[in-house]
UniProtKB/TrEMBL annotation:
CDD domains reported in the protein's UniProt record: 7tmA_OR51-like
Protein name: Olfactory receptor
Keyword Nucleotide-binding attached: no
Keyword Transit peptide: no
Similarity-based family: Belongs to the G-protein coupled receptor 1 family.
Amino acid sequence: MPAQYPLHPHIVLLSNLTQFSPMLYLTGFPGLETIEHWIFIFFFLMYLVAISGNCFILIIIKTNPHLHTPMYYLLSFLAFTDLGLSVSTLPTTVGIFWFKSHGIYFGACQIQMFCIHSFSFMESSVLLVMSFDRFVAICYPLRYMVIITGQRVVRVGLIVILRGPVALLPIVLLLKAFPYCGTQVLSHSFCLHQEVIHLACTDTTFNNLYGLSLVVFTVMLDLVLIALSYGVILHTVARLASKEERLRAFQTCTSHLCAVLVFFVPMMGLSLVHRFGKHAPPAVHLLMANVYLFVPPMLNPIIYSIKTKEIRHVISKLLG
């Protein structure tokens, strides 16, 4: 169940409804309303870094022909998903913390949750394809150019980008068919399926089971396959003759490994909090959800700008 918060005066009008209401109420940080402008400045800086950083990565790859290689096509897919994830939460976050606008129409809430979950699933899939790219590069270096081609990467990238949205569409559309009752308040500054579904006063077993299956067969399966690929990579690296070769081989994976940790560690933390932290303070739930959605898009362009030699070289040319 979502965390409970003191009722805001604007919610009273919603609390007596027993059928579908076109409006929901988004929560910022309860109890911190007096400093919401300062909170927004912090969020604004994260948005600024995330949006400008990922746009910068996309522009660099687009305008430098020598970066038109499979590895950088995958990096552009990652930057695109991070950009989409940042833009998905931007409207309601700005509305709450700057304009004090907490209400959201149910249709807009559906669109936002669809975008947030779709881009999350996309990022998981892109990280999986990137791990396969690193697996082939290290374990089968002589066949890399044959196996990993630009055309194959683009084709696979489009498939994994469409996988999440297509699978999500049924449960997001089904939400509008449910009756809703009680206080229609969401505990974050954005819409998430697992919160909206708790507001329905009818049997939601199908949505719950479908959502769980979707997570298991996309995100969890991706994580298992990524872990297996890195197990094989580590085994291959350990068999290299010299320490320098081992270090050089593993350094080609550091950017991707950091991106995997930045994405999956907050996700697992959020899952643990939802599963075992029912009595944890509401601030803990809010913090974990915001870390999960805001931190990866902000850190990924920084990681790849620091760790990737070709991007560092382009940046140094622009600055020099």
